[in-house]
Amino acid sequence: MLSASPQRVRQMAAVLSRGRATVAAAATTGTPQGATEEWLRARPFEEIPGPKALPIIGNAWRFLLPTGDFKGMDMMDLVYHIREKYGDIAKLDGMPGRPPLVFLYNANDIEKVYRNEGPRPVRDSIKSLKFYREVTRKDLFGDIQGVAFTQGEQWYEFRRRVNQPMMQPRSSKLYVPSIDQVTLDFTDRMLTIRDENMKMPGDFTNELNKWALESISVVALDTRLGCLDGNLPPDSEPQQMIEAMHTLFDCMLKLDVRPSPWKYISTPAWRRLVKSQDYFYHVAMKHINEAMDRMKKRGAEQVSAGELSVLERLLLSNDDPRIAIVMALDMMGAGIDTTANSAATAMYFLSKNQRVQEKLYQEVRAQLPDSPSQPLTADKLEACKYLKACVKEAMRLHPVAIGGSRQVTVDNLVLSNYRIPRGVNIMLANMVLTNSDEHFSRPSEFIPERWLKDDDSAQTAHPFAFMPFGFGPRMCIGRRFAELEIYTLLARVVRRFKLEFDGEMRWRTTVLHVPVTPLTLKVTEREQ
């Protein structure tokens, strides 16, 4: 399975055949049928500034050779470097087997891309996992591969079937009691892992990973995995699931972002990806099957009358159980690193801004006046406007995703007065915009008030400058649950503890943008 056999090469060639057609389309800048006046006036695609590609090796040498100016560069640094050198629009082409990539740093251009994506947007950038599901593990996934790895009608049909239980606000609010119980257990655990100086351990971010996995498993499966049990061994299933997702993101950087021959030979990164995902899906499927067995034993009538997991809701609303299974798998996989790192970033900024933390504490205490453990409801969370502003401001400064991506699916698209052909990939560099004084006053400061409409400092940035979850039909499908988990965690933690942190945080950008300095928060219990 893992060798560079002729069969594997043929399989990969079949999967990538559509990509070759895309590359050819992107290289063609002739006048399309029905060309608009704007297109005719615009400059040719070839004139978009960017690093010059060399014959044969293109721009790959910049990432691979010791003399390459992109070699080993942090992805966020690369995005800033390209903007500083080439301006608000830049092109990176000459990457073997990939269509040209256009970087956008102008909010009007970003809005234009989203407004022209149509009902079936294309985001075909995760080739490695697509191949894993479509070929390597076809026995498990078949033609149901989830929202992140499919395009066109296949994507549209899957998304249509899962949208309601995933995206409607009233659906996510049903899970506040379950998420809150996990979070109460987590705040109890914070006391047990606190050292004699009242500080969190150096691997506190891993504790947040365990909280995130436990939370999303309750939502998806109505199952407690035991992630918050004391002295969880390193070889436990929950910890290995977390490590499997860390491995996945590391491999995606090597396989999908940087140049790699994995499409033609079995590289070490490819083998690590397969091994990690095999393990994750094996354990996750065990819990999914157990959840399905519980549902069968209770009976459909009894289940429909009570609170349902997302898996149960999808099983009842779809005639194909694979849709529910794949969505549950994706919730568990995608809901660990992204949610945990977003929570860690917000906790860091609160710990460094005591004025903000005290204001948030007063807001939360007004909703929970009796004790830090009294019931937290959806209505109480909804009333915490400053809480939401704090999360939004943390995401503005350091979002877990530094931008979005789309593939152009229309003719006659013009961005910054350049013609953009169908098939070109677009990188929407939102984090550059959210940290720019062009859109936000005092952009480096943590000021949640800028998101409150009734505050004097309310921001007036371009609405498409800040897009932490994307926009349109392909907006992040797990947004509601991620936000709910983070709101609940911050409300509970700030109500119970005062947070302090010595030093400054550093972030690293690979596939995700994550804090890397140990989050050794000092946590002091507040008076009841």
Describe the structure.
The protein is of the alpha+beta class and 528 residues long. Helix content is 52%, strand content 7%. It has 22 helices and ten strands. A four-stranded mixed β-sheet has the order 1-2-6-3, sandwiched between helices. A hairpin with an 8-residue loop joins strand 1 and strand 2. Helix 8 crosses helix 15, helix 17 packs parallel to helix 22 and helix 18 packs antiparallel against helix 20. The protein starts with 5 loop residues before the first helix and ends with a strand. The relative contact order is 0.16. The N terminus is likely disordered.
Question: What keyword list fits this structure?
Answer:
52% helix, alpha+beta, single chain, two-stranded antiparallel ribbon, 528 residues, four-stranded mixed sheet
Runs in which pLDDT lies below 50 for 5 or more consecutive residues are 1-6, 12-29
Number of strands: 10
| Neighbour order of strands in the largest sheet | 1-2-6-3
Shape estimate: globular
Q: Let me know the average pLDDT.
A: 90
Structural class: alpha+beta
Largest sheet: 4 strands, mixed
Amount of beta strand:
5-15%
Count of helix runs:
22
How far is the N terminus from the C terminus? 59 Å
- Helical fraction: 40-55%
Rg, please? 24 Å
